[in-house]
Design a protein that fits this description.
With about 200 residues, this protein is α/β, with parallel strands linked by helices. The chain has a 5-stranded parallel β-sheet. The chain starts with 6 loop residues before the first strand and ends in a 9-residue tail after the last helix.
Length: about 200
């Protein structure tokens, strides 16, 4: 019997916000399927109970409080400011109006709180369980995730700048990643970097 992938729903009318969050979530949790909905009506028409988590715009949560209050541990409110809202205290929230590295940090923090060491998650596909990177590439990746620039990495590892650039390119190619944010997510979720050091 084939095991189905857990699903996450994003419910937000802002298309650009939805697309960016979907990309980050798929990078942070590659075993998940991410579905997007522009409204609560769209979600309710598609068996909403099938989703492991709901990432929902604040206005949609407020307008549909009765539904989301039934699922406080599954609901993550997408807020536009860093200040908390006492009317949403029962839910986790992330501020999407923040720099990309901060949104990544918030997602990783939530992921570790609810699913540390893969808890409540299906096993990773075999290809993702294999050691893909060399020890030196892991060192370089860890320093990139901590925010070091190429020159700092070269100095810390006592290697040439061109070698760092080559390692960066090889790491991104091997992992199929396209951004430093995606690389940071990979490094934290695979235990190469402590979330408090990014």
């Amino acid at each position: 019997m084939k095991q189905t992938r857990p699903k996450i729903a994003i419910i937000d009318a802002n298309t650009l916000s939805v697309l960016g969050l979907k990309q980050l979530l798929q990078t942070a949790m590659p075993v998940m399927t991410v579905d997007t909905f522009g409204s609560m009506t769209e979600l309710t028409a598609n068996n909403p109970e099938q989703y492991m988590h709901y990432f929902v715009a604040m206005n949609i949560v407020l307008e549909n409080r009765a539904f989301f209050s039934r699922y406080p541990r599954k609901t993550i409110v997408l807020t536009l400011s860093l200040g908390g809202s006492s009317q949403l205290d029962e839910f986790h929230s992330i501020c999407i109006n923040a720099p990309e590295h901060e949104v990544v940090r918030q997602l990783l923090t939530l992921q570790q709180m609810g699913h540390s060491n893969g808890r409540n998650m299906p096993p990773l596909p075999q290809i993702l369980q294999k050691k893909i990177l060399s020890d030196r590439e892991i060192e370089v990746m860890s320093l990139i995730a901590k925010g070091c620039i190429n020159k700092e990495i070269a100095d810390k590892l006592n290697i040439g700048l061109a070698t760092v650039v080559t390692h960066r390119r090889n790491i991104m190619d091997k992992l199929g990643l396209k951004s430093v944010s995606a690389l940071t997510i990979y490094a934290v979720t695979h235990g190469y970097v402590d979330i408090n050091k990014i």
